Amino acid sequence: MDSYDIIIVGGGPGGLTAGIYAGRQGTKNLILDKDLAGGIGREVPEMENYPGYENISGLKLTEIMKTQAEKNTEIHEFENVLNIEKNDDGFTVKTDKNEYLTKTVILATGSSHSHLNVPGEEEFLGRGVSYCATCDGLFFQSRDIIMVGGGNSALQEAIYLKNLGCNVTIVHRRDEFRAQKHLQNMVKAEGISVIYNATVEEIKGDMIVESVVLKDTKTEELSEMKTDGVFISVGYIPHTELAVQLGVNLDETGHIIVDKEQKTNVEYVYAIGDVCVGLKQWVVACGEGAVAATSAYHDIKQG
């Protein structure tokens, strides 16, 4: 059974950064990701707030980081971690392909898209319903679509879809956006239509999406709106199954609680990125990855 100093579960921005820092410290490390490295960060259409780049897509930045990380750590993509057990020498990490021993674990398990949980959402997934503008936007050029949500991701994707040539309308359940002001200004500048105080109650169609049922959150009046597609960006659900197995403490929202060194309440277990309490930003995850890898290194040396 292969043995490592640090195993990082998840190859998103935080996990890749942790791998870079861990490798440069001279430890033996492994990143395990159930999919492609980068996670949902690959779906970000463009970023204007990542230091060093005036504008870069999540996919492009992921590939740059992955290339750098591969010089410092092993990366196993499409290898899903099923279980992590504490043992006398550290931890046994069991995947769907192998088992590994490690002295420390960094949980960078990220999050997945929240769903609306309305009729038609699952039925029309891939047939007009999407959670990824960069994945599916090209299919909707010159067509009418709605973007559901009011945070940074929703507005970023709405702008991206508009620039692709889609006819975009944002549907938001409140009377104002939660997104950063510059994104709100860009939505106005692009002339993107917005329906405030509305929720999607049902997604309708025959073989593909044809319309949505909207409810006015103030009057509760229902109306039907024709659309060719529904893009959904209403938040994320942290992946904490492995954390729960290990007895890691979560907060009331289901996120992992860590200290300033990214340590959890379980010795030699650290957590970073969207699975943790805190600001959900690419640059934050990278910083946390650097801190966690350094903390793990020091703990190994002192232990």
Automatic annotation (TrEMBL):
Residues 4-289 form the FAD/NAD(P)-binding domain. One of its GO terms (cellular component) is cytoplasm. One of its GO terms (biological process) is removal of superoxide radicals. Transmembrane segments: none annotated. Keywords: Disulfide bond, FAD, Flavoprotein, Oxidoreductase, Redox-active center. InterPro entries: FAD/NAD-bd_sf (IPR036188), FAD/NAD-binding_dom (IPR023753), Ferredoxin-NADP_redctase_2 (IPR050097), Pyr_nucl-diS_OxRdtase_2_AS (IPR008255), Thioredox_Rdtase (IPR005982). GO terms for molecular function: thioredoxin-disulfide reductase (NADPH) activity. SUPFAM superfamilies: FAD/NAD(P)-binding domain. It comes from the Archaea. The keyword Flavoprotein applies. This is Thioredoxin reductase (NADPH). It comes from Methanobrevibacter millerae. The lineage of its organism: Archaea, Methanobacteriati, Methanobacteriota, Methanomada group, Methanobacteria.
